[in-house]
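Input record, target 12 of the design panel.
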């Protein structure tokens, strides 16, 4: 696989697939602060999130399981998903362990539509606001 950064540490257009500078999630992507690749970390965190939600709030977990998202369903309004208030990718990039991201206070069950809206909002913050903040220092 080609290197996604140039000598200055910047992402190269065309290699990452994202012109805004944030890399696509590659299977081989690995944060140096983490011992696991993103895919391994994410799988572990997803399992922990479900286990913790089931233990801490069984009624909400049952509602989630009865209305879980499935690709064949037409509407995402009635489908539920587990949303992480601090996004998983952000937690991984900050070097947090999966159990910290799966904390019950970082979880909420929302519709898929709402989850997409939250993701778009965080992506905008990460691509614009945070980058500008870092560059201003």
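The sequence produced for target 12 reads:
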């Amino acid at each position: 696989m080609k290197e996604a950064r140039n000598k200055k540490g910047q992402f190269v257009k065309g290699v990452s697939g994202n012109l805004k500078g944030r890399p696509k999630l590659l299977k081989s992507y690995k944060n140096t602060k983490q011992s696991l690749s993103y895919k391994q970390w994410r799988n572990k965190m997803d399992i922990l999130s479900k286990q913790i939600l089931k233990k801490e709030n069984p009624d909400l977990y049952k509602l989630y399981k009865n209305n879980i998202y499935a690709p064949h369903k037409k509407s995402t309004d009635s489908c539920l998903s587990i949303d992480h208030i601090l996004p998983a990718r952000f937690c991984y990039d900050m070097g947090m362990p999966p159990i910290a991201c799966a904390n019950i206070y970082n979880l909420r069950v929302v519709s898929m539509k709402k989850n997409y809206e939250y993701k778009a909002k965080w992506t905008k913050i990460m691509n614009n606001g945070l980058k500008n903040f870092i560059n201003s220092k």
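DSSP finds five helices and two strands in the chain.
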